[in-house]
Structures are given as C-alpha cells and as structure tokens.
Amino acid sequence: MTFNFRYNRIRCISVIILTLAVVLFCGSCKKIDETQSTRLQKETDSWKTIDDAKANLIGMYALMRNALAADNGHWLMGDLRNGDFLSTNRADLQAIIEGRLNASYPVINSITNWRRFYAVVNATTIFIERSPQIVKSDNRYTQANNNVDIAQARALRAFAYFYMVRIWGDVPLLTTTHDGDFIKAPRTSKERVLSFCKTELLAAAQVLPFRYGGTDVILPGAYYGLTTGTDPNWYGTLMTRISVYSLLAHVTAWQQNYLETDIYTKFVLDNYTQLVEPGVTDYNCRYLTINELTLNVRTNETQQVNPFAYKRATQLLGFAFEYGYGYSSANGHIEQLTLASPFVPKVLPEIFVPKDSIRKIFTNPADLRFSIDPQTGLYRENYFTQYGTQRPMFSKIKIIEAVANTSDYAVFSSAVLFTRLEEITLLRAEALAVMGQKEGAVLALNKAAALRGYIPYPDGSTKDLINEIFAERRRELMGEGWRWYDLIRYNRIKRTSGTFITKNGQPLTFAQAESAGAIYWPVSQDVINANPAITQNNFWK
Fold this sequence. Notes:
Strand order of the largest sheet: 1-3
Strand content: under 5%
CATH class of the domain at 7-207: Mainly Alpha
Shape: globular
CATH topology of the domain at 7-207: Serine Threonine Protein Phosphatase 5, Tetratricopeptide repeat
Order of helices and strands: HHHEHHHHHHHHHEHEHEEEHHHHEEHH
CATH architecture of the domain at 7-207: Alpha Horseshoe
Helix content: 40-55%
Structural class: mainly alpha
Number of helices: 20
Low-confidence stretches: 1-41
Mean pLDDT: 89
C-alpha cells in the first residue's frame, strides 16, 4: 500500500509541526517567535496550500499518537494500577501497580506531565484558526474539505481533553492559541471540560463522513487526491462519524449519563458497516474471531482485520504505527512490556499476568482466549504463551516486524487502539444494564463474546449482570488500556464498601478515594513549577 501524494514533503512538514509544538510547550511564558530558528519553516508559511493543510492535519494525529504512546503511557496508566499485571524486575512499574504514583522515577514524572496532550490541543486549535485562510489562497482546497478538516481538529481536541480528564480530573481548558503565548491558566472543573468535549463532538458529528475518499454520501469523491477503492488509504487513520459517536458514548458513560450512552452506542452499532467502501472486503469492520484478534500479522500478510495491526477500519478509534510508511518503532507499544523470547530477543517480559490471576479471570473451560483444549490437553495460547513457566507471557498483541532471527532488537507496528467493535458493544451492555434493560444488556454482552467459544450469560442465569459485563471487559480488553477506567466506572455503579485503595496503610473505600481525588494521577512537578496557577490534586499534596 502506498499514498499517492508528496509523502516525503508532508512527512518533513509534520516533523516541523512536532518540533514547533515541543518548542512552544517547553517554554514557560515566552512567545515562540521571540527567537526565530534559521532551520525551521516559519509557522506563518504553513497555511498557504492544500499540501500545507494535509501536512498540518496529519501532524495533529501524529501528536496525539505520541501523547498516548510516549513512555508507554497508555498502558502504564490504563492497565497497571490495581490491574492484572505484575512487574518482573522494574521498580518504577511496581510503584504504579501499587498506586505509589508520586514515587521519584523518571517514567512516572514523564507520564504525569500533561504537556504532550496540550501539544495536541495547541496544534488542533491552530488548525481551526488558521486553515480557513488556505481556502482563500488555494482553490484546490475547497470549503467542504476545510469544514471536514476542522471537524476532525475539534474531535481530536475533544479526545485529548477527555483523555486528560480521566487521568487528572480538573485540567486547564484552552480553546484559543493566544497568538503564540502559552497562557498560564488555572485548572478548569472536570465537569466543564467534559461539557466542552461533548459540545465539540456533537458539532463534529454533523460534519464528519463515515469514510474518506470514496462513495460516502457526506463526502463523496477523492479526499486529498486519494480514493479508497482497493487500496483503503484512510481506513483507521482519521476521525470518522463513527469515531466521534464512540467517543460521545465514552464521555457520557464517564459522566454516568447512560441514557445518552445508549443512544450513541446504538448509532455506532447500527452504522459501523459504513466505515468500509462497498466491495473492499479485506478491511471489513466486524466482530473478530479469536484468530483474527491475536494473529501475528508478520507471519500472515493476507490478514487484514487484526485491530492492533497497522491501520484498519476495525479500529473505530486508534492511532496507527504503519509499517509501510516507516512508523514502526521499538518504543510505544504494549509488546515492549509484555513480550520476550521466542517472540523478541529478551529473556524476560517486563510485566506479566500471574497464573493465579489468569485462572481467576478465565473461568470457562470453553473460552478460546485461555483454557485447556480438550483435543490436545494443552493450554490454549491465544492470550498467553508458556503458561507452564513461572511467568506466563501475555502474547495477545504481537505485531512484530523484526524478531530474534533477523535482528538484535524488535520493532513493532501495533496501533494505540482506543476502541473497537467488541469494546463499544460491551459499553452498550453496561449502559443498558444500569438502566435496568436486562434483555438488551444480555444480548449485547453475549454478542460481544459470541466468537470466544461460549456464552457468558446463558438463559436462566442468576448471576449479577453488571459483574458479568465487567468480567467480560476484563477478559476481552486485557492489555488495551481499559482496566483502571473500568474499575472506576464499575465502582461508581456498584458503590462497593470494601477497600479500594490504601493510603499510609489505611484502607479507603471507593467513595472515600473518589472524594479525596485518589482516582486521579498527580500532576508532574515540572508542570506546577512552570505554571504557579496549577495546584496539585488534593490526594497527592
């Protein structure tokens, strides 16, 4: 697959955008134009042609991907604290697992610095403000094209804010660029930020197409000169109408507004087939078999549906490390933490799921993700390899481009995946169950798990439905950055009275932990030093 446009130039401009964002947010209060670099293209020269629009657009997505993947933050924050993984020999990862989030480790200080997300906020806001001038200067860049691009910027900015609210709670809400000044704004209430996210997403949803560069009724024809056809260039790359409604479902679930979560998840499930151009079968967005979910794509180049591989329509919202465009890397992938020999040249994985946890989580003997195969008497290895060893290897995700027999290090192409069809279906089950619509909730739960070898909630079951939905999310979404946020939503629903976390050896219930701000991460001291208007989360003072 290749993009048929001036890829090298656009990639160079994207690098410039990334560099400018770093320059902007590394400074405390200086204007970025006080000292003009002789090596960088002037920012004012980046808004003249359709190529500039495309480069700035792709640059926004690159910044978001970096914000999620840097230091493996998506997984360290989503899967480790109170999660299923243990650390093999890294004290910094063990500190996160144990909830010592203010421990003095470089990786903790790095991922608690929200500057990388504000680089996204700045880039998207600049695009919203500056891109309309390209319509006037380049007649190839139509108003319709600009409207769609601005909608993407608004949706991407809303995603960045939603992601930060889940991590830090109250965060500064910046909606203008202030002509290059980094405004030392105080934190805005999480309620107001989420309201902003919802408003922006609803506006974007009215403009964005289901797919780009094809026969989509909202945006038909080529998009930046590219059509999908048999080479679906844009699949899994850009924010679509489905991406936005998926995000709206999660924003409203976080707000515990499950009535709207029901509406938005229903829209996604009723319309997801429109993500794929008719006749393009290899990239079909569908519920996945266990083989499609866990296949190492490097060994089977015909496999086109694995949601973690490259860019796929199956990624309702994800950020790809596309191998064909040189974006594969050794860092910023779950495999860097979970894999070892024979997959990569490493003796031990950095994190693993212990055997007792595996047996507790995967309880059904027919579960294709992990159980004993009655035909062979061996453990199924779709999720875990080397179960018979002291540390079973979590190998569900393994999109590997270089292995031990071809290189002395591993390079990965797995995407940072936020949501896929099974996840959004389980979110719908959660919403319906909370609202007391048991029949619909059970149908959604069983639909999400239908290709995993058994039905998690058979007819006549008397099990707690909410418990079963979150147990299925725990199994299906392991290693995808969901566990901590699921624990928060689960405890908000159930209001459990047992110990949720401890502080100085004292147990705290979930209600106490949430009230104290313990469900959020501390803000990096680097952020506070640079901006005195920022105060630390109460629990971490």
